């Protein structure tokens, strides 16, 4: 409901248009916003450029298409100084900023930090 809350119309398709696409890959490739960290096929190293609310894109399935298949919302640095995000997890049965099903940080070498590919600011 992120797009709805900030006034973006939600699109039912992956086609470019005036709104927030439904799927992560369409959000990353054709969705609105400014690219903060471009997708180079490897995890970005400049997390200092991120601001709370930025959309983070991940390639979790590691399929040959190398496209974003997961999106999260950046929260900022936690008490330990790590870059933390919130995202929906199958294992948690919904959104979590906790570490159930993988740590929710970008800089720990875990599954999500290795799969992080790009960021956009709406």
Could you explain the architecture of this structure?
- With 122 residues, this protein is of the alpha+beta class.
- It has helices at 2-5, 24-29, 111-115; strands spanning 34-37, 55-58, 70-77, 83-89, 94-96, 116-121.
- It has a six-stranded antiparallel sheet.
- The chain is globular and about 40 Å long.
- The two termini are 14 Å apart.
Question: What are the SSEs and their pairings?
Answer:
Layout: H1 2-5, H2 24-29, E1 34-37, E2 55-58, E3 70-77, E4 83-89, E5 94-96, H3 111-115, E6 116-121
Antiparallel strand pairs: 1-6, 2-3, 2-6, 3-4, 4-5
Offer a quick outline of the entry:
With 122 residues, the chain is of the alpha+beta class. It is built from three helices and six strands, in the order H-H-E-E-E-E-E-H-E.
The count of helical stretches stands at: 3
Please give the domain count. 1
Mean pLDDT: 83
Strand order in the sheet with the most strands: 1-6-2-3-4-5
C-alpha termini separation: 14 Å
Strand % is 25-35%
Q: Which shape, going by the Cα principal axes?
A: globular
Percent of residues in helices: 10-25%
Extract low-pLDDT stretches. none
Number of strands: 6
Query: SSE order in H/E notation?
Result: HHEEEEEHE
Query: Major sheet: size, sense and barrel closure?
Result: 6 strands, antiparallel
The Rg value, from CA coordinates, equals 14 Å
Helix/strand structural class: alpha+beta
